[in-house]
Amino acid sequence: MSRLGGRILVAGSANADFVVRASHIPSPGETVLGGDLSIVPGGKGANQAVAAARAGGAATAMLLALGEDASAGLLERSLGDAGVALHIVRTAEPTGAALITVADSGENAITVSPGANAALAPGDLPDLTGVAWLVMQLETPIDTVVAFARAARAQGVSVLLNVAPARAVPPALLDAVDVLVANEEELALIAGGDGSIVDRLAAVGTPIAIVTLGARGCCAWSDGAAVLQGAFGVDAIDTTAAGDTFCGTLAAALARGDALSMALRTASAAGALATTRAGAQSGIPAQREVDHLLATAVDDADIADLAHYCGVGDRAD
After folding, report:
1. Distance (Å, rounded) from C-alpha 95 to C-alpha 118?
2. What's the rounded Cα separation, in Å, for the pair 268 and 306?
3. Contact 221, 209 (CB under 8 A)
4. Listed residue (163, 46, 196, 25) closest to 99, CA to CA
5. 3-state class (DSSP) for residue 119
6. Catalytic residue (choose from 69, 143, 244, 302)
């Protein structure tokens, strides 16, 4: 992995989230009366940058594309308040937007309009001197993500890729990734649906591959072995940005030199806390809150069940 003490650069999406709470997620053709509309800063890249900055351990910067509109100002203020240094590509396109319905159960449904995010180009990558980790997602053009990852690899910068939203990933990108994070659906799209979860993680081919499994926890495959982390028991009200919080916190933990098992535990705690409050960036916890949960949580996660679900112990190499 990359040198310690370097900065984290998040390159990716920033959106204004238009959020409505409702009793349930509408079915096709159904109209549901919801609550008041709120407009809050979001986008997978921006959420992960805020999470990394709040986790501490490494200075965090973000490369993002914004329009010339009120939504851009909303995002700039939120990122700046979190301590994220900004490399902004200004475009004539409107700032990206996401339409989010949050059910009373805490689950959500999201539709994204990329807007300015689609303008992020390979030549926009800033100087990587002093950068230890490049963190990316898939809400910006895939050719740009590949170019950024290959440039980082050539300069000895470690790459963490969150393969969200789910889409096919070219081999050239996987070849330049050090840590891949996916949910179960995203992992199946990359590695296929055959075999156990650990079989699929191993098939990804990156040095570390991680799958997040919601209320079950998460599983990583590294150096030919599985690393399991159970979920923290919390009362979830909104799962928006929980995965982004996991990714940003994970990058911060790895940047400060935490072992993978501890990095997964810290990231899982942060992701769990993010589900206990509404909003994307507004719901991302500070590190002191994560530390408190880590110190006080009762470890009631069923690791044996998680191991069985993932196929740990069943894999024959």
Report:
1. 10
2. 14
3. yes
4. 25
5. helix
6. 244
Q: Report how far residue 46's alpha carbon sits from residue 79's, in angstroms, rounded to the nearest whole number.
A: 7
Known binding residues for K(+): 238, 240, 274, 277, 279
Residue 42, SS3? strand
For strands 208-212 and 179-183, give the pairing.
parallel
Residues placed in the known binding site:
15-17, 43-47, 139, 183, 212-217, 238, 240, 243-244, 274, 277, 279
Confidence (pLDDT) at 302:
81
Residue 27 DSSP one-character state: P
Q: Is 244 tagged catalytic?
A: yes
3-state secondary structure of 303: helix
pTM of the model: 0.93
Burial class (CB within 10 angstroms; exposed 0-12, middle 13-18, buried 19+) of 284: buried
In Å, how far are 61, 91, 165, 214 from 152, measured between CA atoms?
Answer: 15, 24, 22, 30
The pair of three-digit structure tokens given for residue 313, joined into one six-digit string: 């112990």
Q: How many CB atoms within 10 Å of residue 16?
A: 26
- Strand 217-222 relative to strand 225-230, pairing: antiparallel
Could you give the domains of the chain? 7-310 (3.40.1190.20)
Residues (pLDDT < 50) of the chain are: 316-317
Structure tokens at 247: 């990714």
Beta-ladder partners of 159: 134
User: How would you classify the pairing of strands 15-22 and 158-162?
Assistant: unpaired
3-state secondary structure of 292: helix
Token representation of residue 284: 């991302």
| Residue ranges at the known binding site for substrate | 15-17, 43-47, 139, 244
60: which residues sit within 8 A by CB, 6+ positions away?
A: 7, 8, 9, 10, 49, 52, 53, 83, 84, 85, 252
CA neighbor of 271 nearest in space, from 296, 300, 299, 250 = 250
Beta bridge partners of 161: 136, 180
> How far from each other are the two terminal CA atoms of the chain, in whole angstroms?
25
